[in-house]
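Predict the structure of RNA polymerase sigma factor RpoH.
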Amino acid sequence: MAASDKALSLGHGAALSMAPGANLPAYIQAVGTIPMLSAEREQALAEKLYYGECVASARELVLAHLRFVVHIARSYSGYGLAEADLIQEGNVGLMKAVKRFDPNKGVRLVSFAVHWIKAEMHEFILRNWRIVKVATTKAQRKLFFNLRSAKKNLSWLTHSETQAIAEDLGVPEAEVQRMEGRLSCRDMAFDAPSDADDDDAWQAPQHYLQDLSSDPAVAVEAANSSADDETRLHAALAQLDARSQDILARRWLAEKKATLHELAAEHGVSAERIRQLEANAMKKLRTGLAA
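Done. Here is the predicted structure for RNA polymerase sigma factor RpoH.
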């Protein structure tokens, strides 16, 4: 492992040892007690890390800025995600910023780290806010976060508001309208839950998708044809004598079909005679169905 990678790994361990868990207030209180760094101390630590890959300097820089991550995480509380998770993601961004910080640029670490912290939080929000992604391109992500803060109320944007936002963010008005629609929607399972009643089950999207392989006219025609065939079959069976009806029912319609010899014994004739009666009855049925 390279020295820089080792430094980063140890820096991660130091921060993660204080990661927010079930007791978030205790974590916030703990990071609030860590003293902030003066500009001179921060510069000295940054130079040790940048030129000497000092693990202890990386640790101190990270710990001193954990309270800043908490401050940023609270600004994203309106997305319905756990604050502890946002802080965790922000801490990852902070550690990435510490690793890449150049003390020769003449800026404080907090000014450089804010972009890395927000980037990690933005990625986490976009991955977890909805089941279906609402923003995949850089322009859509920028629009996603700015549109929520730009809207003054819950009502739909007016044309002038849409135009102003589009000009301010440098995106087409149609893109603003599409993103507003995405933000106003909610996730819904494609299938109805297993415990849903009949009224709720029909609200599932699967019942409102067009089935291109099904034609309602063909379905109605098939149902009518089936019903007509059944009616004609019953009418044809009614034209047969009782013995022929019994033979056909026992040979074709019963779950446990009778043999020729069983029917011959019951009706007191030969098996060959039962076969002849069956054949004649089937012929009369075909004639009746074809009529």
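Residues 1-16 have pLDDT under 50 and may be disordered.
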